Amino acid sequence: MRNIAATTVIMKLSESKSDTSIIANLYKSINNSYRRLSNTSNVLHRIPEMEIPNMAIADEYDIEKMIAEGCFAKIYLAHHRPTGTTVVLKAIHTELTSLKEFVREFHYNYQLSHHPNILSCYQVKFQTKEYYVYAQEHAPFGDLAANVGASGLPESSCKKIAEQLSSALGFMHLKLLVHRDLKLENVLVFTPDFSRIKLCDFGSTTREGVLVSKNNKTWTAFLPPEVLEVVKNERFICKASSDSWQFGIVLFVCLTGATPWKSADWVRDTKYAAFMKYQKRETTKIPDNFRRFTPRLLRAFRRIFDHRDEDRAKVTDIMKYMKNRWMDGKITVSKSASNIASVGQPQQCPHPHQQHTNSDQDSVKYINHRESRNSFDGKLRARRMTSVGALTPDSVPGSMNLAGVDHQDAIRSKVWDWLESNDLSASGSVDDLTFWSTKDTKTLQLQHHQQQQRRQSVGGHLLQPHHQDLISFSESHSTVSFLRETRTITGGGVKMFK
After folding, report:
1. Which residues in the chain come in under a pLDDT of 50?
2. Burial code of 185-218, b = ≥16 C-beta within 10 A, e = fewer?
3. Does 458 fall in a domain?
4. What SUPFAM superfamilies does UniProt report for this protein, alphabetically (predicted)?
5. What is the pLDDT of residues 271-282, one digit of tens each?
6. Across 12-55, where does the E strand assignment appear?
7. I want to staple 277 with a disulfide (CB 3.0 to 4.6 A). Which of 14, 64, 267, 282 is the partner?
8. In a domain, 262, yes or no
9. Which region, left, alpha or beta, applies to residue 398 given φ > 0 means left and ψ of -120 to 50 means alpha?
10. Residues belonging to the active site
11. End-to-end alpha-carbon separation of the chain, Å?
């Protein structure tokens, strides 16, 4: 029995020893894998020292044409004679770029080339008397700036661009790299249906968390607010959230053909100030240039264009909205718009005596609920009719005198125009007026004018009040409802009673 017990103790000790060794080996393998990952990251972020050979472009290349030219570089389409391949040569001015900056751009582009949506860079680099040159693959359909029209691109194309561009930027962010110069010129197109695009130009690419200065090559409309507020020669921390902001600007331009604002400055730019109020939920009014989007895409833009960079959405978050519709085919108007009297400047209207004001939901005056109901009494209707638009003889153009026909016709025309401009449905009450089309209204006015001419031809004038039937047609002209209203037209204005 003692031997059995001793054997059991030895077995347990051996088992515990084996378990300990297994755990130790496991931790060792994990540490080795982390070490390999860290070494890979160090290789990516460690800019190597390179020897750039001197060579003239004409020694091995035949220049076919110059594709693009910027302040810092020129892009040539060239034919490489030794291999018989067509490549793109990016020639960067030596006076505007240091050797260290050139090597850093080439290094990042070459190390990131294995991603399918990042432009491939070949192991070819040299310098001439005026340029640092390295070779890239050729994009046959140019960049996005040459493909986006004044009205933008179809929604399906924009989704393809957003998916591929977010994948490329997300890959860079996983490597702790920030592009910092995202714009339409830096996205190249390889297929006409945008099923294959690639990100390029890594001259401003920097490691995340490093102190950097403002990039003067980026357009002002693409700069996020935290970068735009940086003064000259001031340094700030490089963050991936700046790429998210620029990604949103690129997506907006692809959808609409224009940038949402000139600069993300809420003091100087009214469009950005309007979006900020909407983004912070200080108003329910959607900015004019965002009204064509669906509520789902509006939510995405509100997160991408968050003023606080720490709350801004990641570039890969756009994948959550791929199955949703982005563009709204129609602009919806609230049903309660007729109950809102807006404060603003009058605009030109199709009717000469009718005036409307700009609707601004930030500063609105709501009419009393009792007055905005479908059914209300005749006295209240008469008060609203005579109070809207200042229905007085002096305010009506062409008014002659208190007994003149022109003055009465002008008063009557203003009342008709007021009735057209107010949606007064006759649901359940004979006393209410119905809304009729402009064509039927003009027909009734023409009939009334002909009656006036016949009476004047006999030699009579409108000496006393008269009664007239008002006929209201529905918009479909399928049903006709007769509402009898008695109107008394006097020299001082209009009175209505039953």
Report:
1. 1-2, 4, 6-17, 34-35, 37-39, 332-405, 423-439, 458-498
2. bbbbbbeeebebbbbbbbbbbbbbeeebebeeeb
3. no
4. Protein kinase-like (PK-like) (SSF56112)
5. 999 999 999 999
6. none
7. 282
8. yes
9. left
10. 181
11. 119
